[in-house]
Amino acid sequence: MKPLRSLILVCAFLVFAPVLAVAEQGVQTGTVAETMTSGGYTYIRLEEQDKWLAANAFAVSVGDKVQYSGGMEMNEFQSKALDRTFESIWFVSKASLAGGVGGASSGDKHAAAMPPKMPVAVQAPAPGDITPLKEGKTVAAIFTESADLKEQVVSLNARVIKISKDIMGRNWITLQDGTGTAPNDRLLATSQEVVAPGDLVIAKGTVKTDVDLGYGYEYNVLLEEAAFSEGQK
Questions:
Q1: Is 177 left (phi over 0), alpha (psi -120 to 50) or beta?
Q2: CA 92/CA 185 separation, integer angstroms
Q3: Quick check: do 3-97 and 139-230 share a fold?
Q4: Which of the two residues, 227 and 116, has the higher pLDDT score?
Q5: Under CATH, what is the fold of the domain 3-97?
């Protein structure tokens, strides 16, 4: 799959775009026809519905009955960890063995899966909370000057608002510094590095502009291949 298609799926699933299908309601059940675990996710093909699920990793075997709830459908999803593309797969918010409950011991092979970890809620910085980086840029400036900054390396002092790890071989980090007006008050960065929500960081990366991912997903600016160091207070 081409990199652009991969970006479509990432942005649709993780960032600001709406879900691709209406979330399933209530608790669903099914029998495991096929399963594998990789990259922190357990993938399950259900026998009855002949559909694939993805959930936080947990112990499950072919023939087990599982229950799940919530989630959204992704089409043509490429898993680099498995080196395969799923025509359709549901990323569910909760999954466990049928009748399983939370709190099972870690030694239990069939311990119930916990819901996928949701991003830690971090309050967006107010104007003036974060000092602009000397000889650097602000979120507002990157958007305003995006035409001139295209393909250039920039740095900014910002707070990590959200991170989604190890998706399509990269981490996806949302940055804010108290500048800009919504929706151009937050900057999405991709990186091989890991930071934590709430961290004050200096982010350095390459500006990509006018990114049209198709399916209605368009982004004025992305910060690619970002590297991070401790931010300046």
A1: alpha
A2: 30
A3: yes
A4: 227
A5: OB fold (Dihydrolipoamide Acetyltransferase, E2P) (2.40.50)
